[in-house]
Amino acid sequence: IEATGRYADRFGGQLVLVTGAGSGIGRATAFAFAEAGARVIAVDRDAEGASRTAEMSRLIGAPEAWAEMVDVSDEQAMEKLAEKVATEYGVVDVLVNNAGIGLSGRFLDTTPEDWRKVLDVNLWGVIHGCRLFGRQMAERGQGGHIVNTTSAAAYQPSRALPAYSTSKAAVLMLSECLRAELAGQGIGVTAICPGFVNTNITSTARFAGVDAAEEKRRQQRSARLYGLRNYPPEKVADAILRAVVRNEAVVPVTPEARGAYLLS
Ligand code: NAI
């Protein structure tokens, strides 16, 4: 972990909740807020990953950090989390809806079950987070910020990722609508759109209806691509903190995401 000190104490005393904080971009984001003095709630369905993030966040500089094992697509579990957070930790100042899963496969090969899984986590998870924590922010009346991790896939059509891209496009639009709705209450909303970032998501993504030879070619292609880009999650985390500080609306991160955004 590199301590840049760029946002030293900028988030001192603030309460930040990050979902999907057990690895990748979410973990790097929790660390960046910890380094900036925030109290951190690391939420993930992977209990071990979340605990490790919370433990490390304390070492990095978070005055307090907690791990919560929650599946963001589970409405009741999210409601329980929102209640617990409000009672035990306080109202969240910054919410980062970042948990997400990948799914590759042509549209005609994907099943309704595939679609449900991706939309349940990538879209419904964000809806639950925005609804529950956004309401607490609005009721408190002291502003706040919501960051939703979407993707360059949200505005860049691809034959390989129809379900994933659709889920991310929905989150992009939700973020923009919510930004308009909550602006009057001093609550900012940002859609973060990374391109290719080196994390687990590529290795854990499921592939629908793609034959083994094609899958192997795809993996070789993406290994070249990821190898070339080599974009670290810490840089996405940095863009997230900057977006909160500057109250930015849509933030394409990574060079190819910026390029595709300009063309979209
Ligand atoms: P990752 O796989 O390293 O991290 C995702 C985390 O979310 C994991 O810790 C996982 O356990 C957690 N998670 C998954 N489903 C969950 C659920 N239902 N409830 C709670 N936690 C859950 O992947 P990465 O790359 O850090 O992904 C973070 C976000 O960034 C995702 O929304 C992803 O779609 C998005 N993204 C990633 C890009 C990349 O190239 N890595 C590019 C564009 C967007």
From TrEMBL:
Domain Ketoreductase, first and last residues per copy: 14-195
Domain of life (superkingdom): Bacteria
UniProt keyword list: Oxidoreductase
GO MF annotation, one: oxidoreductase activity
Similarity comment: Belongs to the short-chain dehydrogenases/reductases (SDR) family.
Protein name in the entry: Short chain dehydrogenase
Parent-record interval covered: 303 to 566 of 583
